[in-house]
Specification:
about 230 residues; alpha/beta; seven-stranded parallel β-sheet; 6 helices; about 15% strand; globular
Length: about 230
């Protein structure tokens, strides 16, 4: 039974990842900031021996260290770096920018993913065919920016893409696969009111995980398998 670590697993895409992976006979280490409030996740874990729930805020080094100690001896076959925030409710224009929200967005969407990868790279290296699935967004593709707004989120995902491109080069020497994934327009708290369900999005992304090979390393894909520019 392969092992997967999923961040931001209390709702939306993260919860859908946990449910889908467990259904595919993965052992899932599901992390989130407040397990006590994650009723749906803990209920799901209570019904499955293959799911364990762990507290971890990806912006808090002590939380990451504690999770690492919990999983220190476990190989990680798949790290789904999913935790993210979108704090721009309403229009963001010059004169209304909130730099504390911008910094928080970078802390979670960029630094949070990199912190997790750094903490668990040894666990990944001990797995047979390890893979990092970095959940990004087409909004981080610089060539896709044609309108104003969403400055916090767009810049965090563009920076994430750049960091992952560099890590992909480093991982070539370590035998760790990496790809970025755009989940599409998903009906979550962060997403649009109409679009894909989390389950539809994750089912598509999981197919990319299943067929991952060396040619896909360091590349950027939509949930449907089409490739995106950086």
């Amino acid at each position: 039974m392969p092992n997967a670590l999923v961040t931001g697993s209390n709702r939306g895409l993260g919860l859908a990842w946990v449910r889908h992976l467990a259904g595919e006979d993965w052992r899932v280490f599901a992390s989130c900031r407040h397990p006590g409030d994650a009723v749906e996740l803990t209920t799901l874990a209570g019904r499955s021996d293959g799911i364990s729930v762990h507290r971890c805020d990806v912006t808090v080094p002590d939380d990451i260290r504690g999770l690492y100690w919990d999983l220190e001896d476990q190989p990680i076959d798949l790290l789904v770096a999913n935790a993210g925030v979108y704090l721009e409710k309403g229009a963001t224009v010059l004169g209304s920018l909130r730099f504390d929200d911008w910094m928080r967005t970078m802390e979670v969407n960029l630094f949070g993913q990199v912190r997790m990868i750094e903490a668990f790279h040894n666990n990944l290296e001990t797995a047979r065919n390890p893979l990092v699935a970095s959940i990004s967004s087409h909004m981080g593709s610089v060539s896709d920016i044609t309108v104003a707004g969403s400055y916090y989120y767009r810049s965090s995902k563009a920076a994430l893409n750049a960091a992952m491109r560099g890590l992909a080069a480093e991982f070539m020497e370590r035998g760790i696969g990496l790809m970025l994934l755009h989940p599409g327009g998903v009906m979550t708290r962060m997403g649009p009111p109409h679009g894909l369900s989390p389950e539809e999005s994750v089912a598509g992304m999981y197919q990319l995980v299943k067929r991952f090979d060396r040619k896909m390393h360091g590349r950027f894909y939509r949930y449907d398998g089409s490739e995106l520019p950086w």
